[in-house]
Each structure stands twice: as C-alpha cells, then as structure tokens.
Amino acid sequence: MYPRLSIRVAAAILALPCLVADAAGTADAPRRPQSDSEIVAKLRPGALPASERESRQWRLDLERNPTNLPLALASARRSVQRARDEADPRQLGAAMAALAPWWSDNEPGPEVRVLRAIIRQSLHEFEPAIRDLEAAVQGSPRHAQAWLTLCSLHTLRGNFASARGAALQLGKLSDPFTTLAVAAQIGSLTGHAAQAQSSLTQLLESEPAGTPPELRRWAETLTAEIADRRGDFDAAGNHFRKAIRLGPRDPYLLATYSDFLLDRGHRGEVADLLQGWDHADGLLLRQVEATGNPALARELGDRLDSAFARGDKLHLREAARFELRIRHRPGRALTLALENWDLQREPADVRILFEAATAARDRKALETVRTWMESTGLEDIHIPHPPTQNHRE
C-alpha cells in the first residue's frame, strides 16, 4: 500500500507518468481462495476497454521481442501508472515482467535503474530502491526523475537531511512549481508547517499557465494535509475538495480525504466516496471504519491475515489500524505499528504508533513518538504531546 507520501514528497511523482502512489491506495496482494465456492474475480460484462487491449498488445509484442528495451520501458511505465491509477498490484507484476531481462542486472543503465527503484519502492523494498537511485544519479546526475524519487524515498523514511540534498539537486533540473512544492513538503515535516502551507497556498493562487492538472492535484492534496495537521480544517477541506475535482479516482487522495472526513465524523460521505473500491485494502479499511459493516470487516480481516500468513508485510500500517480500531487489540496493533515504524515514518505512521502505544499503555513506544516529534519538529494536532508518566514498559 501506498499510503502514501499521502503528504509527502513522493506524491510529487503523481505528476510524472512512471510513478506509483503510496501505500494507502494499494490493492490487496494475491490471495488463495478459502473454498471452492469463493468468487475470486468477476468477468467484465462487455468488451475489453481500449487501455486493456493496448496493454495486451504490448505484452504480445514483448513476448516476441523481450529484449527490446524501449518497448520494455514504455510497457513497464504504463503498467506502473495503471497500478497507481487503479490500485491494482497485478500491474506491478506486469511491469516487473517487462523488465525481466534486466531485473537482476547490476549495470542496467539509468532508465531501468530508476524504473526498477520505483517498482521496488511500491513493494516497500526501500533499501534496494535507494541503491538503484544513488547509482542512477551518480551515472546521470541530471536525471530529474531519479532525484525526485530519491527525495521521495528519503522523506518517506524520515531521512530529511538526505531528502534536502536530493531536493537541492532536483531544483537545478525541475520546474519551479515542483521545486517549491517539494521544499514545502519537507519544511512541513520539519517544524515549518505554517510557512509551508502559506507558500503552497500562494503557489496555487499564482499557478502558471500550463501547469498539468496532475501536478496541481498533488499540490492541493499536499496543502490539504498540512492544513489538516495544523488544525486549519476549513482550509484543509477546501483544498481536499479542489483536489477531488481534479482527480476523483486518485486512490491516495481518496484515502487521505477519507481520513479527514472520518476525523470530522462524516462517515456517510466516506461510504459514498469509496463506492466501488472494495478491491483496495487501504480504501476498504476506511469503508469499514465508516460503515461498521461486519461483512466488510471480515473480508478485510481475512485478506490481511492471509497476507501475513504468506509473509507479505506491505500493509503493516493498515493492519495496525485495523487491529486497533476494528478488532480492538492494542497489543497486536502496537506490534505491527512498531514493525511498520522500522520501514517508514510519515505522519500517518507516527499517528498509528501513537494511538496504538496510548491504547496499549506502552511508555517506551510513546517515548519513541515524543522523541521523533521533538527532533523533527513535526506538527500534528492529531498527536497530542505523548504522556510520559503512569504507563508501563
């Protein structure tokens, strides 16, 4: 899942055609049916859409000429984009298959390295992804996509000094809109949230002609998230609604906007917003929280349990939230939140760790949250200053 980076610098890649969103909008991983009567898929009622026919044709072309690098890159990029747009992890498998001849190559060239890193990022293979990107920028220091993705990954991991370094390099290569938004993203997580929100608001108000709608949608989402963390809920709602008008089917945006609405108690709006997204674990989780539907809760619980039985740890954040808010098992939720903390440290990761630690009355975990917030300067009204007394280890 993705998450998100919803935000995060990684969402900047929403404006580029080869990047997948964060974890929050990622669909569930493949699972084994529990009985012969279980429905695993429904056939389309009509002919395949043009996009699917084109993708199939590309796969056929690659089967005939699997070492055609331009074709493989184009096919893989398209699959990654579809994975983001549709919250469908099967498309990531298609992207990996397109790059199969170069997947294990130690010197595949910068374009393969960057695309391989983007896929690995979506699979939470963060360290290999960073190694690929560092090698890419070393060999091609003017590769803007590589710098942007590297900045995204360092921000996701909470390595803000490294993120700033990548952002400085990106600033020499990218457009001013993206550069300013990336800087505001990092600033919002390191003690300068008010300034970041103000800068982004001004940026959006003075949007240069020709700014792609995908880029504006990302900036609107980012501004909304910062405003929400600051408790400026009117501004947050306004920016979320603008973003939704620009991208009503963006899985990451749907997840973050749903969280905002759930915090405000607008459960009916969330249920309406997420109609048709049952296949995506992160969005199904929000449907369960909004509706309290026991059948949906069982379905999601079965998915998450099956994923962990397979050793799939892509949904640690969502699983921790499910255990805490739906199954009401704070000890299990804290275990998952701490495991997730070892991988990623976005505001949503901080929040679920705080909530689980508070419910479990775990002083050590609460101290981890307190130390992080003090060391980074993160501002989030949803995370009160963690208490340090009257809790057990």
Note poorly predicted spans.
1-31, 40-45, 388-393
- Counting structural domains, the number is 2
Q: Residue share in helices?
A: 55-70%
Structural class by secondary-structure content: mainly alpha
Q: Under the CATH scheme, which class of the largest domain?
A: Mainly Alpha
Through-space gap between termini: 31 Å
CATH-defined fold name of the largest domain: Serine Threonine Protein Phosphatase 5, Tetratricopeptide repeat
What count of helical segments does DSSP give?
A: 19
- Any idea what the CATH superfamily of the largest domain is called? Tetratricopeptide repeat domain
Average pLDDT over all residues: 87
Strand segment tally? 0
CATH architecture of the largest domain: Alpha Horseshoe
Described by the principal axes of the CA atoms, the overall outline is globular
Tell me the radius of gyration: 21 Å
Structure write-up:
The chain is mainly alpha-helical and 393 residues long. It has two domains: 9-29 and 53-314, Alpha Horseshoe (Serine Threonine Protein Phosphatase 5, Tetratricopeptide repeat), CATH 1.25.40; 315-393. 64% of the residues lie in helices and 0% in strands. It has 19 helices and no strands.
Indicate the topology.
Layout: H1 50-64, H2 69-86, H3 90-98, H4 110-122, H5 126-139, H6 144-157, H7 160-171, H8 176-188, H9 193-205, H10 213-230, H11 233-246, H12 251-263, H13 267-273, H14 281-291, H15 294-309, H16 316-325, H17 330-341, H18 347-360, H19 363-376
